[in-house]
Amino acid sequence: MQHSQLAPQLAPQFAIITPSFAPDFERCRLLCESMQALIKTPHRHYVVVDRSDFNLFQSLKSHNRDILVVEDIIPPWIRRPPLSRKIWLSSKTLPIRNWLLQQIVKLETAKTRDEDYIVFVDSDVAFIRSFDFNTLIQNNCLRLYRDVQGNATQKEIHAKWHRSAARLLNLPTVDAAIPDYIGNLITWRRRNVVALCEHLENVFGRSWIEVVGNTWHFSEYVLYGTYVERVLKEKSGHYYEAATLSHDYWLPTPLNDDQLKHFFTEIPTEKVAIMLSAKAGIAVERYASLCQQI
Questions:
Q1: For the whole model, what pTM was predicted?
Q2: CA gap 259, 272 in Å, rounded
Q3: What is the DSSP string of the chain?
Q4: pLDDT digits (tens, 9 = 90+) for 243-293
């Protein structure tokens, strides 16, 4: 009797990376629940938290979700002083602001995954529609968000990030258009992250983490986007899209119930997720059920 053999299950190509911390735990749990319900593409989800928050987030661990610890990702010469949430001390750089440290962690986490494709999904995002990550690949190229119009409301700080990116990449000029690479559900190729970090080390002759740690104005998304567009060019394995995948609320002010319902009723049909900025302080229980009514 012949026995048929099952085809081996392919390892997930997509790594979903979510930095989070204790105050965003409920938001992160909603994200995880929405992914379990709506994302059928094989993937591995990495939630990255400080060691002090690890036990809290362990309840979110699953067959395809790991909880990673920031202190295990960064080099030992970067340490957080006791009782500090905002500054990390370093023996090789200036003190590192937590906002910058998070960007270093995102780069290093992406660089050291096994998966080919990286998707950054912040913990204040929730999926509202079924979505296949494979739709982000066309002709073996991965989508990269790029809006050539730039960000008009934050043009000054974006210009500073672009100047920093040009300096770090040893480019003679800054792209005058200041294209925007920043948003939600941003996708990268792991091989490009590896090449980017090697590029920084070749330019400066030291660890890329030291280089970034000594940079004041910095955006990981602008650095990667600039590297792809101006250094790798057609070798990047990306194609560009200006459309966003999520319906976003960025302001730090909360919404009342009517405003919240209006936010959900005006979601375009092509959006697959929502983002209500954690800075707005909107309790998850006020909108979790609305996410399920789309």
A1: 0.94
A2: 20
A3: -----PPPPPPP-EEEEEE--GGGHHHHHHHHHHHHHHB-S-EEEEEEE-GGGHHHHGGG-BTTEEEEEHHHHS-TTEEPPTT-SSEEEESSSSPEEHHHHHHHHHHHHHHT-SSSEEEE--TTEEE-S-B-GGGGEETTEEEEE-BTT--GGGHHHHHHHHHHHHHHTT-SS--TT--B--SSSEEEEHHHHHHHHHHHHHHHSS-HHHHHHT-SS--HHHHHHHIIIIIIGGGS-EEEE---SEEEE--SS---HHHHHHHHHT--TT--EEEE-GGG---GGGTHHHHTT-
A4: 999 999 999 999 999 999 999 999 999 999 999 999 999 999 999 999 999
Calculate the alpha carbon distances from 128 to 34, 37, 183, 236 in Å: 7, 9, 17, 30
Q: How confident is the model at residue 294 (pLDDT cuts 50, 70, 90)?
A: confident
pLDDT bucket at 5, cuts 50 / 70 / 90:
very low
More confident residue, 210 or 7: 210
CA distance 201 to 197: 6
Retrieve residue 172's tokens: 């003679």
User: What is the CA 82 to chain-centroid distance, rounded?
Assistant: 27
Q: What is the CATH number of domain 14-248?
A: 3.90.550
- Give the start-to-end residue ranges of the domains of the chain: 14-248
